[in-house]
Design a protein that fits this description.
It is a single chain. Helix content is about 70%, strand content about 0%. With about 120 residues, the chain is mainly α. It folds into 2 domains: about 1-70, 434 Repressor (Amino-terminal Domain) (Orthogonal Bundle), CATH 1.10.260; about 80-115. α2 (about 15-25) crosses α3 (about 25-35) and α4 packs across α5. Residues about 70-75 have low confidence and may be disordered.
């Protein structure tokens, strides 16, 4: 759970106190999660799922609430289209999402071609 939370904070560029505010828990709670002294409750797992776009089932398994599923592997982040439609349904229409996906793909290709040429 610690690595998952650190990855969430890195991806969203949030500090522990900001993550706590974003999902509606105390800073002390997030601190306990990050030190491994505690795990998120099922209710907090639901908030994390809504916040990250990762399925509730995966977050519950990472937290240890569903131990049989935890062995399935690391959580997968949603594709941009899924994320954008969930996070910004009113702000981003299909044309904008497609344009941003194209930019993401160009960036990926640029990085790949640079590594390939090196």
């Amino acid at each position: 759970m610690v690595s998952f939370l650190r990855d969430v904070m890195k991806r969203k560029k949030r500090l522990p106190s900001q993550l706590a505010a974003d999902i509606g828990v105390s800073h002390a709670t997030v601190s306990r999660w990050l030190t491994g002294k505690d795990i998120p409750s099922p209710k907090s797992c639901l908030r994390l799922a809504e916040y990250t776009g990762v399925s509730l089932e995966k977050i519950l398994s990472i937290a240890g609430h569903l131990p049989g599923i935890a062995e399935a592997g690391p959580p997968e982040w949603p594709e941009f289209r899924e994320y954008a439609q969930g996070k910004y349904p009113a702000e981003l229409d299909e044309d904008l999402i497609t344009m941003i996906e194209d930019l993401i793909e160009r960036r990926r290709n640029k990085k790949y071609n640079f590594k390939k040429d090196s």
